[in-house]
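Lab notes, practical 5.
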Amino acid sequence: MDLKNIIILISAGVNLFLGALIFLKGRKKIVNKVYTFLAFTVFFWSIGMVLYRSALTVEEFIFWCKILYAAPVFIVGSFLYFTYIFPEEKSWPTKKLLTIIIPVCLLMLYFVLFTGAIVKNVIFNPGKEKTIIFGWLYYSYVFFISGFFIWAYVNLLKKRHDSKGIIRAQITYVFLGTFLASILGMITNLSLPTFGIFYFNWLGQVLSIIMAVFIAYAILKHHLMNIQIIATETFSILVSLAFLVNIFIAKSVGQFILSLFLFIAISFFSMMLIRSVIKEINSRKRLEQITLELQKAYEDLKVLDKAKSEFISMASHQLRTPLSAIKGYISMLVDGSYGKIPEKARGKLKNVFESNERLIRVVNDLLDISKIEMGKMELEKEPTQIEDLVQSCYEEMKIGADKKGLKFVFEKPKYSLPKIELDPLKFRQAILNLIDNAIRYTQKGEIEIKVEKVNSVARISVKDTGEGLTAEEQRAVFEGFTRGSAGIAHFVEGAGLGLYVAKKFLGLHHAKIWLESAGKGKGSTFFVELPIG
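Output from the prediction step:
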């Protein structure tokens, strides 16, 4: 037997081994069965080439040559069918597809095996590859083989386009392997023989190993058809068998005992290895399933979040107009525009006016939040002297601090800071929210506002001697509709949006905000850092 036949037999063995393993692991699965049939047809095609090259008479030449050209009919038919059911068995081909594949394949088999329309004659050339004389239907045969392959690849590409994740990866490797093998095989076994070049016509069988290697890689890498478990089991069994054979060929008692011990030890560790591989594969599958579920949940949450923001925006707009009208009429009633109002009624109207103001602030906060979350909030930036902006906030809030008898201090930097590009209105609102919170939750003591330059940032701090926050409250204080115990006790009307809105506005300016508090009753300090330049 020459070297070429040995190489062909090795490639045939690889296809046969892989097909048998997949069949044994999933006898009830249609995908496994079809792939096994495909692997076996490649095996018989390779054996046909070995027997064709080893034949001694003209009758044997022609017989094995016809077998050689009959096998690819089964290969392309089964491969096309495989692409329709792979990788998910629910994607069964329609009856219409089967009624096309089966009759066409049977017709082509008839012309190959029982007529001279495809293979007419074979001429023996001593020391060279045999010359095949083709019949009048040979070009139709070439069209049939290449047409089925193209059909299969178009189907695989369509499936790849419509899939993602591990399925997409599986289809990619199967496509690459079979595409390379078939293209090269058709060149060496179909195209070149058309021009009388038969020197390479044995390479197609060898090139089929590319398909086996690529699919095996897809299997091992992406757990296709559970072959990772199969490979582990096969390796373990072969190693155990090798040590079992050593027991029976032992030439001494010591060698027998050693071989027996090694056989038991290897068998035990093989079982542990297989169990570990199965556990790992099951864990990965579960992880992949959880990941897909989380991705779907995330997408659903994004849709719901967008709908929530749009609803809040719409509802807030609808509330804003009547609230503004209520504010105007109450103001005119209090001022006496509609006649004199009794003092008792005037006091109640003022309470209504303040409640309406709080509701307007909540509506405005909700509108701002919805705009930011939908990406519709636009900043009107301009060069701003940050310490002047903070000082104006201090002066505006000073009256409220004085009413509570708090010591209210503002410390400017010794030297003017560089002007910073920001939206003065929105940045000012964020700082006002911090100062308002400090005044609201400080019953006695002082509030200190400070602006300073720290390295390459402008730092603003609002320090108070108020209620302070627990560690749990500190973690949640910047979340929407969240309030600490002090807020619930001292300011029941609050909605828990002030700090949330402040953080959103500061985030638009790429500013950093955080707080520090030693705990309940020990006050707190809010920090804001904004890059300079």
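Observations recorded by the TA: The two ends are 81 Å apart (CA to CA). The chain has a mean pLDDT of 80.
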